[in-house]
Design goal:
This protein is an alpha+beta fold and about 190 residues long. The chain has a single domain, classed as Hypothetical Protein Pfu-838710-001. It has six helices and nine strands, in the order ββαβαβββααβββαα. β5 and β6 form a beta hairpin. The longest helix has 14 residues.
Length: about 190
């Protein structure tokens, strides 16, 4: 599928809260895996201005180019698969035309030639199915930062809210306004420049 609507709920965690959720749900039986996001933007921040973000993710030795755009129910994600060679060209600031993402970028008024590689963020992730949702614990590393995060990915807003609130309540964790990974990455990049 080249497009999907992503409905997710996020909460930054202290390390102790991460450990608490890890114990509350059966995360001990789940394998830890690592994924790296490579982020792209124009010099004049055209994507960011439109609430959008562009990344390449390497996960399970597969490369996926993803454009995230605002959508009334969450985020519209548009995907294209990349070969190793194509991903490396993108990271070297030589982006290649890909059918689905390129079409969406064109609609946003973003030219492929204006995109620049910004850097990468690596996440150590555990995920499990829980009450009709996917619950994710992330430990992310970027620039000189690291953070911990709970994500609940759901088929509907009502189901996502229900499970997200239940986990926070059961673990006595306050709900925090949480920017997505790319915003946290941008903020760290701006502070490091």
């Amino acid at each position: 599928m080249s497009q999907e609507i992503e409905i997710e709920y996020k909460n930054l965690l202290m390390m102790e809260e991460y450990d608490q959720i890890h114990s509350f749900l059966p995360f001990n039986s789940v394998e830890l895996f690592e994924q790296t996001n490579y982020y792209f933007e124009t010099a004049d921040l055209k994507l960011r201005e439109q609430g959008s973000a562009l990344r390449i993710r390497k996960k399970n030795n597969r490369w996926t180019l993803t454009l995230k755009q605002p959508h009334e129910d969450g985020l519209l994600e548009t995907h294209d698969t990349l070969t190793d060679e194509e991903a490396n060209l993108w990271i070297q600031n030589k982006p290649m035309d890909k059918p689905h993402v390129s079409r969406q970028l064109q609609e946003l008024g973003v030219d492929l030639g204006d995109l620049e590689f910004l850097g990468s963020l690596t996440t150590r992730r555990k995920e499990l199915e829980y009450e009709g949702t996917t619950v994710v614990l992330d430990h992310s590393l970027y620039y000189d930062r690291e953070d911990y995060e709970l994500e609940v990915e759901a088929p509907s807003q009502s189901k996502g809210t229900e499970v997200f609130q239940k986990i926070l309540k059961e673990c006595n964790i306050p709900q925090r306004k949480t920017d997505n990974k790319i915003k946290r990455f941008y903020n760290a990049k701006l502070q490091s420049d």
